[in-house]
Design a protein that fits this description.
The protein is of the alpha/beta class. The chain folds into 3 domains: 6-116, Gyrase A, domain 2, CATH 3.30.1360; 150-210 and 376-442, Four Helix Bundle (Hemerythrin (Met), subunit A) (Up-down Bundle); 215-366, 3-Layer(aba) Sandwich (Rossmann fold), CATH 3.40.50.300. It has helices at 27-32, 87-99, 109-116, 122-133, 137-147, 150-174, 186-215, 229-237, 280-295, 309-318, 355-366, 381-402, 407-425, 431-442; strands spanning 6-9, 17-23, 46-53, 58-67, 78-84, 103-104, 217-223, 255-261, 264-270, 298-303, 323-328, 345-346. Strands 3-4-5-2-1-6 form a 6-stranded mixed sheet. Strands 8-9-7-10-11-12 form a 6-stranded mixed sheet, with helices on both faces. α4 packs antiparallel against α5 (137-147), α6 (150-174) runs antiparallel to α7 (186-215) and α6 (150-174) packs antiparallel against α13. Mean pLDDT is 84; it is low at 242-253 and 437-446.
């Protein structure tokens, strides 16, 4: 890591106010040259009013927030300059900072310094980007949970349990010639390994939910031509997103947008109407309809007449393993008679009738598990991959314990599990930690 002092604009341009962040060993000296303050003598966690000047001209009236190492975001001496949001003012202050010894920060460099200085681990660093990118309540809550260290805490607990397992096996290897020294038997080791593996599996399984919450749950609107699919899309989105026409085959490609239900993002996909056609372009659109159905988690099948038995069989075949919601549209024109075989929701997309009932059905079909801000939900493919490898290596440990495999081979597989989990946080297990664990927990010798 460069041991220089960096600066950057920390707020989006165009607002009434802007914040410039400065971090590094020369922070206080550099900022002091631009204002009347002696920042090095200012008490930490203090906000002071001053002027930024170029030596002759006042650039702006500002507030200077002072943070002393290690009690700052980066763990370094840091200052945040709050000024007016004029692009001229912001650029001029940055220019003066660079002229006096700062370097413009690279993308993500503040968070990288926070990680390298031990303020956050890798999973928390990734949560910073997720928090900035969050677009709804669900993704915000997940990112905040990870940033506050709930995932790191969960991994730390697993790490401690794995370290206990490793330490017991190391004891078995190092002191096997001492017959009077007792160790935990293999049954205890097996039970502990099974407990750890169950938790790793639960974390890995949460990735499916995490991906759905992070990327949006895909919902495909399908049906014959002219049954009101595009009108329904517009009603759900509360916007005229799709072209509506009485002409059959108007929608020839998928149209996609997002909506929020109870803080959860749903990706609604309007598709080309399904029918027999010789039109090459429309045929491509219908093929894309089937592709959208394959990728969707929820299928909205829109009908305006009783489907044939073969149509029902076909849709159920194509939606196997997915949530199928049958929608009887144009109920204001053709009233729906409840049919146990269909169990449809009757609506009028044109008149916005019963749309709230449909929205409730869509949310329920998503089957989002109840969770709070302290729950851990994995959203990163990198984390999922590491957990999957940890589970695979731990299965080898379990098999070895069942077959009374030698302790040295078991210890090696456990070290692989520890390495897999360390990939998530960036905190590697050292031989000294294993040694410390042995002596502090098991009192070997006196």
């Amino acid at each position: 890591m460069n041991n220089d002092t960096i600066c950057a604009l920390a707020t989006a341009p165009g607002g009434a106010l802007g914040i410039i962040r400065v971090s590094g060993p020369q922070t206080f000296a550099i900022v002091s040259t631009l204002c009347s303050l002696c920042c090095n003598s200012v008490a930490p966690n203090t906000i002071l009013y001053t002027h930024i000047t170029d030596g002759t001209t006042v650039i702006d009236e500002v507030l200077v927030s002072v943070f002393r190492a290690p009690h700052s975001y980066t763990g370094e001496d840091s200052i945040e300059i709050s000024c007016h949001g004029s692009s001229y003012i912001l650029n001029r202050i940055l220019e003066l900072l660079v002229q006096n010894g700062c370097r413009m920060a690279n993308p993500g460099e503040y968070t990288m310094r926070a990680y390298l200085n031990g303020k956050i681990d890798l999973s928390q660093a990734e949560a910073v980007a997720d928090l900035i990118a969050s677009t709804n309540k669900a993704t915000h809550n997940i990112a905040m949970s990870q940033l506050r260290g709930h995932f790191s805490s969960e991994l730390a607990t697993l790490r401690e349990q794995l370290l206990k397992l490793t330490s017991l096996l190391e004891l078995e290897l190092d002191f096997s010639d001492h017959e009077d020294l007792e160790f935990a038997d293999r049954t205890e080791l097996l039970q502990l390994a099974q407990t750890i593996d169950r938790r790793i599996v639960r974390l890995a399984q949460s990735f499916e939910t995490g991906q759905a919450l992070k990327n949006g749950i895909p919902v495909a609107i399908v049906g014959k031509t002219n049954v009101g699919k595009s009108t329904l899309l517009n009603r759900l989105l509360k916007d005229d997103r799709a072209i509506v026409s009485d002409v059959h085959g108007t929608t020839r490609d998928t149209v996609e947008d997002t909506m929020l239900l109870n803080g959860i993002c749903f990706r609604i996909i309007d598709t080309a109407g399904i029918r027999q056609t010789d039109d090459t372009v429309e045929r491509i659109g219908i093929d894309r309809t089937y592709q959208a159905m394959e990728k969707a988690k929820i299928i909205l099948w829109v009908i305006d007449e009783i489907p044939t038995a073969s149509e029902i069989e076909d849709i159920r075949h194509r939606t196997e393993g997915k949530s199928l919601i049958i929608i009887w549209n144009k109920a204001d024109i053709h009233p729906y008679s409840p049919d146990s075989q269909l169990n449809a929701i009757a609506i009028s997309a044109k008149n916005s009738e019963n749309i709230d009932t449909l929205e409730h059905a869509i949310y329920s079909a998503a089957n989002i598990p109840e969770y709070n801000e302290n729950d851990v939900i994995v959203t990163s493919a990198r984390h999922y991959d590491a957990l999957s490898h940890a589970h695979h290596n731990l299965l080898r440990v379990l098999d070895g314990l069942h077959s009374s495999l030698s302790g040295d081979l078991l210890a090696e597989d456990l070290r692989l599990v520890l390495s897999n989990l360390s990939d998530i946080t960036g905190a590697a297990i050292t031989p000294q930690e294993t040694l410390n664990n042995i002596f502090s927990h098991f009192c070997v010798g006196k």
